[in-house]
């Protein structure tokens, strides 16, 4: 047990020499490639983070553009709807005015027809009254006056009655 605790200078020298040789070999052959690999990994992680940030910014920008386009599309749709509504209202008013004009035209023609039929009926009534008056007058006067004279007198009388 004493030997384990005792210090041997030869053993210490060779331990330090071995340690320094291993340290030198590790420094030249292992640490430089490991450090280079760690640096490359750090750079790739930094690049990935940068790319992710750039992608996030692009996504945000695209999202904003999409929202703008969506809003513009909605506004355009509203404009199309308002134009369509206005056109529909205009068409409806045109159809209503055309129908109103046609109805007024039909009523006007009907009134003209009624007036013409009324005049025709009055003319027929007058003619019938004239004929009856002539027949009655002829019988009353027993042909003392000619039928042309009777007709003329009856028409004058009816004309005066029509004016009154």
Number of helices: 3
Unreliable stretches covering 5 or more consecutive residues: none
Principal-axes shape call: rod-shaped
Largest β sheet strand count, sense and barrel closure:
none
* Class per helix and strand makeup: mainly alpha
Percent range for helical residues?
Answer: over 70%
Number of strands: 0
Distance between the termini: 166 Å
The Cα radius of gyration reads 62 Å
The average pLDDT is: 85
What number of domains? Answer: 1
Which sequence of SSEs, written as H and E, runs from N to C?
Answer: HHH
Strand content: under 5%
Topology diagram in text:
Blueprint: H1 2-5, H2 9-141, H3 147-163
Helix pairs in contact: 2-3
Structure description:
- With 164 residues, the protein is mainly alpha-helical.
- It has one domain.
- The protein is built from 3 helices and no strands.
- The chain has helices at residues 2-5, 9-141, 147-163.
- Helix 2 packs across helix 3.
- The longest helix has 133 residues, at 9-141.
- The termini are far apart.
Brief write-up:
This protein is an all-alpha fold and 164 residues long.
Spell out the key features of this protein.
164 residues; 0% strand; rod-shaped
């Amino acid at each position: 047990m004493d030997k384990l605790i005792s210090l041997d200078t030869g053993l210490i020298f060779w331990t330090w020499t071995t340690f320094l040789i291993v340290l030198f070999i590790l420094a030249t052959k292992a640490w430089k490639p490991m450090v280079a690999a760690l640096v490359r990994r750090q750079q790739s992680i930094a690049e990935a983070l940068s790319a992710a940030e750039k992608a996030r910014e692009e996504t945000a920008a695209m999202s904003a553009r999409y929202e703008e386009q969506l809003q513009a599309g909605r506004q355009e749709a509203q404009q199309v709807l308002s134009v369509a509504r206005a056109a529909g209202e205009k068409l409806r008013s045109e159809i209503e005015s055309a129908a109103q004009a046609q109805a007024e035209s039909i009523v006007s023609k009907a009134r003209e027809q009624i007036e013409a039929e009324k005049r025709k009926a009055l003319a027929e009534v007058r003619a019938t009254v004239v004929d009856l008056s002539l027949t009655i007058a002829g019988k009353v006067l027993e042909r003392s006056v000619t039928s042309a004279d009777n007709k003329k007198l009856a028409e004058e009388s009816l004309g005066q009655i029509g004016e009154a």
